[in-house]
Amino acid sequence: MPHRTATTERPAERATERPMVTRTRNGQALDLPLGTRMLLNIAGTKENLSSELVGLQHFEYLILKMPLVPGIRARLLNGEMVTLRYIAGGTIFGFKSQVLNHIVKPGFLLFVDYPDSMEQVDLRQHRRVNCLLPAAVHGRHGTYKCILLDLSEGGCKVSLELQRDDPFRETAVDDMLVLQCGFFGAEGPAQTTLSSLVKSISMDGSRMQLGLKFADLSTDTQLELSTYLDNVSCLI
Predict the structure, then answer these.
(1) 26-45: per-residue pLDDT in tens?
(2) Are 184 and 194 in contact, with CB atoms under 8 Å apart?
(3) CA 177 – CA 179 distance, rounded (Å)
(4) N or C: which terminus of the chain has fewer CB atoms within 10 Å of its end residue's CB?
(5) Any idea what DSSP says for residue 106?
């Protein structure tokens, strides 16, 4: 059988589960400790910026410390709509807000409106998206091209084709692999890299399927992944 590489596949994504629910504030102050890492998305763009909560006035505004990247001030003008996400207690929270103001000294600080409502996704009840995305897995036997079959905040399923005597067939449950994929539009060296544990293995002739569980993801990567899944769900 000729070897089929993952680069010939075209994305075909479909959300199979989307347990995001709305939770209103009901007049109670939000539990947002200073130092909370947040991911900020500017309305109408795919760009996500890492930020840190450095201050707030309950029911009035939040203050975020932002990276001073080229052109960012022009994209965060007063009245601009943004979406913010953060993780607390194993749950990803998100809300839409409006830019109130920003200052650049002594640092780039962004003031946004206090949210009236929140959305939440329990990371223990993962949304799962079926897909066909080119990817690669790297382990003790080398790097192999594969196809990403589904994706959630907690893990994924990949498929790859192997020769009869390929050493990758020795892969076992609980082996550590590194998954590389352009989840968020990145290509080449900028691709997303996710450490993963093998949780299931199945073989069908020369085709191997692996169930992977993500391990030790940074807060920013978790938020990026949740945002990606949410955006994909909205397009279905």
Answers:
(1) 556 788 899 999 999 998 88
(2) no
(3) 6
(4) N
(5) S
